[in-house]
Write a structure and sequence with these properties.
Structural class: alpha+beta
Number of domains: 1
Low-confidence stretches: none
CATH topology: Alpha-Beta Plaits
Number of helices: 3
Strand order of the largest sheet: 2-3-1-4
Oligomer: single chain
CATH architecture: 2-Layer Sandwich
Largest sheet: 4 strands, antiparallel
Number of strands: 4
Helix content: 25-40%
Order of helices and strands: EHEEHHE
Mean pLDDT: 96
Radius of gyration: 14 Å
CATH class: Alpha Beta
Strand content: 25-35%
Shape: globular
Amino acid sequence: MIIIHAGLQINPAKEEAFLNEVATLIEEARKEEGNLSYTLTKEVEKESTYKMIEAYEDMAAVEKHNQSAHFQAFVGKAPEYLVAPLDVKVYDATEVQK
């Protein structure tokens, strides 16, 4: 399983527009083959700061998502909302054993 955490710092003046735009992305991403979870969370201690937590069966599913029309559409509009670069971390969710 692959887990992705994508941190997004949003311009407070554009937050409502961002939430409307990202709702479509979330809805479509959840329908993708190989997607296990796609959830937007909001940080408690930082205003207008969100984390998208994504889980996929494998890297092939991640690549398919990254090439999807809905993801590409969101990526094209994201600079309108962001005040900092995306902070993306990718994890292999295989349990680490000693």
